[in-house]
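task queued by scheduler; priority normal; single chain, no ligands, no partner chains; default sampling; output format set to C-alpha cells
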Amino acid sequence: MPSPYREQVRVFRAFCDENRLQILQLLRSGEKCACVLLEDLHISQSTLSHHMQILCDSGMVEARREGKWTHYSISEAGSRRAAQLLVELLSPTGGLSCACGTGCENDEKERV
C-alpha cells in the first residue's frame, strides 16, 4: 500500500539541498537553459542532472527540451501545491486548539 506521505516527501526533499535551493532562486527570474545553470552553479553536468531530476519529480520544476539542451522553469502549479502541502501539514487537525496551542489530544480529553 502506498504511503500517504509520498507526495509530501518528494516535494519537501526538493528543498533539502543548498544546490536545489540555489537552482530555484535562479529560476525565479524565468526559464534557464541547463548550460546557464551549470555556469552559475559551478557543478558538474551529472550533479546538475541529479538535482534537476529531484526538482522535476517534485513537480516544482518543468523541463523543456530544445536541441541538445534542456530548459527549466518553475512550475506555477507545483509551487502552489507545495505551499498547500505546507499549510496542510502545519494546520491543527480538526480545528482543535488546546491550552498548549498545538491542537493536541489533551484538548479532546478536556472536552469529554
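post-processing summary
- Residues 94-103, 106-112 have pLDDT under 50 and may be disordered.
- The CA atoms of residues 12 and 82 lie 8 Å apart.
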